[in-house]
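User: Hi! I'm working on a homework problem where we have to compare a predicted structure to a textbook description. Could you give me the structure for the chain below?
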Amino acid sequence: MKSYALTFKAGASALRTIRNDGFDISSIGTIAGASGGAKWLVLSQLDRAILRNLVPNMTGPVHLIGSSIGSWRFACYAQRDPIAAIERFENAYLTQTYSEKPDIHEITAKSREILGIVLGETGVEEILSSPLFRTHVMAVRSRHVTASEHRGLLAASLVAAAALNAVSRKTLGLFFERALFFDTRDVPPFFDLDGFPIQRIELSAENLQDAVVATGSIPLVLSGVRDIHGARAGVYRDGGVIDYHLDLPHSAKESLTLFPHFYDRIVPGWFDKKLKWRRPNPGNVDRTILISPSAAFVAKLPNAKIPDRGDFLNYTPTERAKAWTTCVAACEELADEFNEVMAGDRLAARLQPL
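Assistant: Happy to help. Predicted structure tokens:
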């Protein structure tokens, strides 16, 4: 049996539609991007393939919804030259360096520095005026003690949140509220979210950078972003806390969602990573196409794994840069296979149920 580099899965309606009628690129109405930090490097070549070969045939408007690193990737997608933006992002990410024992302030400053490289002088304006894409960023607003930057208090509140989340995911609403920064030109299919307290904020030139930094601000690793323009006063943090892999309605009824992902499964929230029984609502992924590296492909990567945040601790800076660079080069195989599937109209044959 042939070993593939990519796995293609689809929700029930998407699977039925593509098998019966084929895949119509113009039916893509949403592209989703999950949290995952350094894991994004396994997708950088696939992102290029999507931008080169699928995006030019999309009719739009196409909604981009990301949390954490997903929003950083989409800050590249929506620029006038997205390939150049991805290349800037990838290079800055691969070459980031820190002091021997960086504190939360140094890491936060580096995050801002990398985003500045990604956006350049005109990136914000280009994102907000993109003729095709509507960019939406999912962060969280911290409530009560989770708004503290005191390391002990914040850690204790996160332990409490994790413990209660194991009992019921809804309890996260006691600690955090969703903060959806949205492009007002078109209402996204996930605008009327329920299940958690939510605040909806117009994405603008005054808050786009803060929103993108906030959605990647991992508690205890980066500082939260305080008092973002247009939003309620407070501290904003990583959107993955609630929406780790975006367990929310991805698609309008008439559209499909493309979800390039690190894994072939969706984990609802950050605290659900070890809760094997916690699964997404099937209705949320009903029209979603999930594309991910196969287990066979990952086994060929350095140390047989996708890059992750632990690499900062487990490798020397030189070892980390070498492993990550090797991974990015190897992932050209993902892009090549994706292009072959799309050019050969073989998506229907490759799809598995999500």
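For your comparison, note the following. Residues 259 and 290 are 5 Å apart (CA to CA). Residues 6-346 form one domain. Good luck with the assignment!
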